[in-house]
Amino acid sequence: MTNNQIAMLIAMAAYLVCMVAVGIKASDRTETVGDFYLGGRKLGPFVTAMSAEASDMSSWLLMGLPGVAYLSGTAEAGWTAIGLAVGTYLNWLFVAKRLRRYTEKTGSITVPEFFSNRYGDRRNVLTALAALMIVVFFVPYTASGFAACGKLFKSLFGTDYHAAMIISAAIIIFYTAMGGFLAASNTDFIQSIVMSVALLIVLIFGNIQAGGPAAVLENAKSLPGYLSMTHSYDPASGTASAYPLLTVCSLMAWGLGYFGMPHILLRFMAIEDDNKLRLSRRVASIWVVISMTIAVTIGIVGLGMSKAGAVGTLEGSASETIIVEIASLLSTYGIPAALIAGVVLSGILASTMSTSDSQLLAASSSVSNDILAKFLHINMSQKKNLVVSRISLIAIAIIGVVMAWDPDSSVFRIVSFAWAGFGAAFGPQMLFALFWRRSNKYGALAGMLAGGAMVFIWKYGIAGLGGGFAIYELLPAFVTALLVNVVVSLLTPAPAPEIADTFDSVEK
What we know:
two-stranded antiparallel ribbon
């Protein structure tokens, strides 16, 4: 290992030690199950905003999005980013405050628990179904994050993939199990800052290496359709292809997923004062727009660097490593530069860890609180419940490690599928639960089942027909869940008066 690599490793190790320290500190404030899963509803507006967005973006922000822009230009990356930005803003605008007040009114500390409490489902069937879906979609999602950490260290330092993956997973497990929601949220806040610094460093250094903004722009303009939002650049043929409206709608449908993301919705539920959500909304929306814009720009700059010979030409999925390549080049300029490169690479770790810890927390709460305590009615003291919660988190993480054991497993393939699953199964149900008085538990149950099932049916069946059917499965699944919820709710008895009264008493 070279001196430059050691310097990068030192910077990354310092970051990891910081995350562990935050977890230990947060453990002092984690005494009850409510503290473990919701932080006692004590989050400030800035931590609420930045932890929500850091847990949302994952390594997709620093690897997936720049990689797409590097290969095909602005159309696919741009429309996806626009859909996510709009979805982020609308989620904060319409869902955040009412969900915070409604969950406090009903005493709900998890999203599955809220569904049953909202509809008076005393048997907690809604809780169990929602919890099961969270486990199904989040465990492999978490595994992909562990795999990303292992691959990062292996590619940079030549370390053993399994050893790097296990150590990374152990650190995430430790600080999340120790400090619960407060640890995850506070580390996510720090990680969002590290991600932002990493993006800025890469953008500035990349522009210098590519010959400046003018050279980057000239190279992009020379490629047919590369800077167009109505055409896409094909690197294989060097030609432009039209970007149909249906594809644009399909990409923007990513924004619908926000209404059903448990790890994001939990941040809304946890803020200390719902009147501060307006500030959180502004901070979150501005950060999302700026960070995604920079990520797309880095992809374009990275292609300019390849044109200038600063980095090699990346093909296929290798384009997702453009930031890693830029950081590696930066590290060759001496020890101080290598330390800065370590900060950049810590940004990639941060983007992965900030999502993995939130997913672990959501999945473990589904097992211990929603399934064991609520559905199976296993009575436990607060202290015992807290212990079971931590054991559940560790057990789920171990399953994730096992699933990530294959070094050739796909890191990103599961992300869009899991996003679609949550968006379709929970999104329509959450919107109706908050804003439609007539919706009932039968409609919510049917909508949840229909949305989740349609994701599988469309992805592995209908989409294979090609043509207009080859769209992102979230869009048809979301529409299906909406329609099923409405039809079933109207065909079954209206909610009981006390449920309707609670709905009316929650200030919007």
